[in-house]
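#onboarding

Welcome to the new folks! Below is a worked example of what a typical request in this channel looks like: someone posts a single protein sequence, and someone else replies with the predicted structure as tokens. Don't worry about understanding the tokens yet, we'll cover that in week two.

Example request:
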Amino acid sequence: MDELTKQEQVVLKLLSEGWNNAYIAGILFVQPRTVETHINSIFSKLQAKQENRNARVFVTVMYNDHIKRALVL
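Example response:
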């Protein structure tokens, strides 16, 4: 997760909470296309296959595991 920018980390957090791109864009005061760009970058950096319909689930599980490990430390 360290390789993600601060904005990507925020997008990933909101994504893991189940919000859609339009809602995330509204929260962050950016265009939905900007959110898509961040999500594509997240997928790339976390090596999630974008053609996989479960890429959102994959990165959400990775994020949640990361948070759980951080809380244990």
